[in-house]
Amino acid sequence: MNLPYRIAVAPSGFKESLSARQAAESIAAGVLRVLPDAEVDLIPLVDGGEGTAEALAAATGGRLVPCTATGPLGSPVDSHFAVLGDGSAVVEMAAVAGLALVPPGRRDPGATTTYGVGELLRAALDSGARRVLVGCGDSGTSDGGAGALQALGVRLLDADGRELPHGGAALRRLAAIDAGGLDPRLAGAELLVACNPYNVLCGERGVARVFGPQKGATPARVEELSVALERWAAALTEAFAPGADLRTAPGTGASGGLGAGLAAVGARLSPRFDVLLDGLDLDARLARADLVITGEGALDAQTARGKIPGEVARRAREAGVPVLALAGTLGGGAEAAGLDAYESIAPGPVPRSHALEHAAELLADAAERALRTILLGTRLVSRGRAHNARPPYGSSTSPRPVRAPSRLERTARRARPASPPRS
Q: Residues annotated as region Disordered (predicted)?
């Protein structure tokens, strides 16, 4: 009896369109069109960005706690944090300061704030949590966590003793930090920041230069923010952590520098996958698969630097399992992530608005196309091996061998036909 194929589907979310769970379900739908008997293991993965609190609450038997907090533009937004099954809390910075909360026409990382992140931290402490995990990712800010510290009671003053307004650009005028009002509960709580260790606050690879343009910064604004964050790093170090490296230590640049701001007040910065993948038994689940399919909104040079498809590829490679990645867009440098194959979910040029609206359909179709191509390649390899094993044409030494179909071929013959073209 032939065992069914085992396909592990381990994607990230697709920003502004699909959660990690929705992406996994769409990929699985495409797989099952081709291999209806396949065992599909859904492993939706989060990286600290959008959907992290909800995913961890669901995985631990916890719950989401709705609340209102200050959004990245300074106005109230509906947000939430999670209380996990063990009583610890998760604050997802994207739920209150994410790029998706900033309309495209108003994106300026020099003006947006993480103030709401500090408010969510206070709410989590109010709930009784004494261990709080902060998920970093998908931010629309670049204020070094200054807003979060202000919400936690820190005063940031200019040379005239006036409180600085929100936004990273204002940090150029920072003259003094008054930490006298810092929430005392932080001293008795464990604050853990799940971050990308490749992201640093300052320097040529600092967050202003690497991520500022993605958040709407002009070249002039990038340079302005770079100077401001240098000032911020120096002031933070002097006020809270003499001798520490808050400029270029791993993770200090997480979420526009939120990592540095929280590290200054005692948070521990940890590689996000060491924290967020704990308990998923991911390595064993990937090792059991015949094929791993991952995906994300974009594959590019950043994929190998702490993104989910890069992490999945690294773990699958160690297990000797091939990896296919599907993405909304493909950029230069994606090949460095160690993926065996990757492709865009769009069959051709499509408007971005259409791709976002129809992401689930496009992703399922792309999974189907890719898997049919893999089946074709497997048949060609099997045919080539059989051809090399036969005697030459005209030889009378033996009859041409009859080759039994491979497992992939037998499965493909049972598969349903491709979906008809959509109108």
A: 385-423
**6-45+282-370 CATH choice from 3.40.50.1260, 3.40.50.10350, 3.40.50.300, 3.40.50.1580:** 3.40.50.10350
Q: In this structure, which amino acid lies at residue 404?
A: A
Give percent helix, percent strand, percent coil of the chain, each to the nearest 5: 40, 20, 40
Contact 298, 308 (CB under 8 A): no
Instruction: Please list, in sequence order, all residues whose beta carbon lies within 8 angstroms of the beta carbon of residue 70, skipping any fewer than 6 positions away.
Output: 76, 77, 96, 113, 115, 116, 119, 147, 151
DSSP notation for 87-98: S-EEEETHHHHB
d(CA 389, CA 337) in angstroms, rounded, equals 36
Query: Rounded distance, CA 190 to CA 185, Å?
Result: 10
Which has the minimum average pLDDT: 22-36, 208-222, 369-383? 369-383
Name the DSSP letter for residue 291: E
Residue 344 · residue 297 · CB < 8 Å = no
Q: In this predicted model, what pLDDT tens digit does every residue of 63-119 receive, in sequence order?
A: 999 999 999 999 999 999 999 999 999 999 999 999 999 999 999 999 999 999 999
Query: Which phi and psi (to 5°) does residue 363 adopt?
Result: -70, -45
173: tokens are 């005028």
Which tokens sit at 7? 């396909």
pLDDT tens for each residue of 5-49: 999 999 998 877 888 889 999 999 999 999 999 999 999 998 898
3-state secondary structure of 417: coil
Domain 52-275 matching CATH 3.90.1510.10: the answer reads yes
Rounded-to-integer distance, Cα 183 and Cα 164, Å: 19
Distance CA 92, CA 94 (A): 5
pTM of the predicted structure, to 2 decimals: 0.78
Hey, what are 68's tokens?
């209102």
Output the CA angle 63-69-72, nearest 5 degrees.
120
3-state secondary structure of 41: strand
φ/ψ of 188, rounded to 5, equals -105, 10
Distance between CA 344 and CA 327 in Å, rounded?
5
User: Bigger pLDDT: 117 or 305?
Assistant: 117
Which contacts (CB < 8 Å, 24+ apart) does range 176-181 have? Answer: 176/235, 177/235, 177/236, 177/238, 177/239, 177/240, 178/154, 179/153, 179/154, 179/239, 179/240, 180/155, 181/153, 181/154, 181/155
